[in-house]
Amino acid sequence: MQTLGTFEIYRPAPPSHIDVVVLELKDRENIATLKSGWRFLSFDAVESFPFNTRFVLSGFPLEGASWKDERVGQDFLMLSTDALHYAPEVKSPEPTVDRFFHLETEGVLLDGSKRAIPRLRGLSGASLWAYVEPAGIWSPQTALKVVAVQNSAKHGEWIRCADWKVVREIFNQPSLGLISPR
Prior knowledge:
single chain; mainly beta
């Protein structure tokens, strides 16, 4: 089993209850392994939170995963959703950064058929993307921007995300050693 190796954890300063952390990987071998198999997003993929647009949550939820030998198999979930216009009652609300989105129990696939939406357990930390019609030539890089990080859900009701500005604030902590990410 491959782990992340040595890492530092950075989070919002207390007394915050915001459920977001940034891991700074320290193990050069693991970093090289990740770089060889993954494509990492740059800060250019991030934008301030827009309102009155469509959103897409994507990732690999635990529900439906299969294990064979040392491999985990899972279908990629891409869920289109809309912002809720109210804040549900949640534990440790953070009104300045909480963003809530509609989560149904069923979704419509491209062919028009319906499928049950899995529970989102295991999807925490997934990117929430906003679709904003670009001015000029369309491209995925201009139309889709990361605006929040998913941290919990209530199946059939809502998805809770933390605004990306929380992640930006963590990256701006002097102890992390980065310079002004977007």
